[in-house]
Predict the 3D structure of the following.
Amino acid sequence: MISCIRQNLKVLFLRRQPFLSILHRPNHSASAAGNSVRVKLGGVERDSLPLILSWMNAHDLDWNYDGWIGAYNEQRELVGCIYGGQIGESQVAFIGNLVVRNDLRKQRLGIGSQLFRTAIARMEQFNCGLNGVEQEVEYYKRSGASVTSFSVISVCGTLRQTGGSKPDGGINVVPIQDVPSQHLEQYDTNISVYSRPRFLENWIYKDSGMKGFVAKHRDDILGYCVLKPNARGWRLGPLYAENSSVAQAMLDKLHPICAGAAVSMEIPEDNVWMLSLMKDRFSMQLVYKTKRLYTKREVVFPHFDQVYALASIDSQII
């Protein structure tokens, strides 16, 4: 996500100030007055992941080595970063995970602005999506993300039993590991439009702390959900379901795992059932609201009504 403050997180879009130097190629820099922060493309090593996760209070990221841009001070310390990655083999990319070290963020040095503009320039050949808080939408438009789309509501609170009518007995909820990966990928592509096997591998199959379930009717997949630990408890995403009964069946399956712990998720504003359940029945708190923007054209999701919680607003299109 771009331009937001999460509870206790240090993710923030910073105003522009012309003091940074930009590295568009390694080992080439421009001089600037005052202090200097070096920004280079593809310059974040994998061993920096724990540091980035600590900045974000996160447990895991959809790591794509080539997608990260790092900001470095003169001592070559990583002080900020942003992610810009292609979605599968498509012509669509996503920009997010903009984070600046807290002590520098408070100085409002413009590091975030430089990282954002560099990411936009680097991904120029793609139709880039990003999520940003609504008060910054006009800035994004001026910076190249001029196409607006749907809104997303982030909520956080305690997940409880849904308390609704008993789900259809024909819905069978099984551990995600029991479903062949190619079947899950086929279902995921139907929802997300673009095939993303690398994301599924990193997000699900390589994360030992992940808890996931698939809702089925006989051999047909009706939905799936992923629960991942973070610094405050758990994060739910994605939650895709054919209808609210399927979503309810999976939520009830997740409840014993995270009972009493904080759970955060990002819900499309158009999904009235999910928002009502989380905000009204579960008394979850609104954390922030973001807007989806694109640099070239809007991406249409034919089954957007089946998205009850997004996989990520930092690295994935939906």
Observations:
- The longest strand covers residues 147-158.
- Residues 57 and 231 are 5 Å apart (CA to CA).
